[in-house]
Write a structure and sequence with these properties.
With 171 residues, the chain is α+β, with helices and mostly antiparallel strands. The protein folds into two domains: 1-49 and 137-171; 51-119, no CATH class. The protein contains three helices and five strands, in the order H-E-E-E-E-E-H-H. A five-stranded antiparallel sheet has the order 3-2-1-4-5. Strand 4 and strand 5 (115-120) form a beta hairpin. The radius of gyration is 27 Å and the shape is elongated.
Length: 171
């Protein structure tokens, strides 16, 4: 019976340890993603604060893409655009939530006055999306739970091992 208990505990420890390390790996990936998120958040906040706008025109139409938005799948319309500032042409990409009409192929984009190459369509929506992604801490909580469970199982195994050694020494 004790052997079965030990085997079960060892298997549980292996499973929880593997889960813990996988969670930690995903947190490292998330850490890099969070740095990218910080840059994106700064970019969108800067665009909103600068409040410099230009009329952009679609290049080569749009592409319909199904996307998860607020727990439901809907079509977004991905397009490339161009706009002019101070007689120079700049480019960008946008995801429109409403289907563009053939007669209305232009929309408003935000840009930084000192560097119009930094631009975006609907930076308010993009900023909200980045902040939502950043606030997700599910993987961190999972890593903590797996770490605690793995530590408890390791403690039980160590306690059993010490007990086993004491019994062997007495005999």
């Amino acid at each position: 019976m004790k052997k079965i208990r030990r085997i079960i505990l060892i298997l549980l420890m292996v499973v929880f340890s593997a889960s813990y390390f996988l969670s930690m790996h995903s947190n490292l990936v998330l850490h890099k993603k969070r740095n990218d998120d910080t840059i994106a958040i700064y970019k969108y906040e800067s665009l909103i604060k600068a409040d410099s706008k230009a009329t952009a025109f679609m290049e080569n139409g749009w592409l319909e893409i199904p996307k998860e938005i607020n727990d439901s799948t809907r079509l977004v319309y991905s397009t490339k655009y161009k706009f002019e500032v101070n007689e120079s042409t700049y480019h960008g990409t946008a995801e429109l939530l409403e289907k563009p009409s053939v007669t209305n192929l232009h929309f408003e984009v935000y840009y930084l006055p000192l560097n119009p190459a930094v631009n975006a369509y609907s930076p308010e929506r993009l900023l909200a999306k980045e902040k939502e992604i950043r606030s997700s801490k599910e993987n961190l909580y999972a890593a903590i739970v797996y770490g605690i469970l793995g530590s408890v199982i390791a403690g039980i195994l160590i306690f059993d091992f010490i007990k086993y050694i004491r019994i062997r020494i007495k005999n």
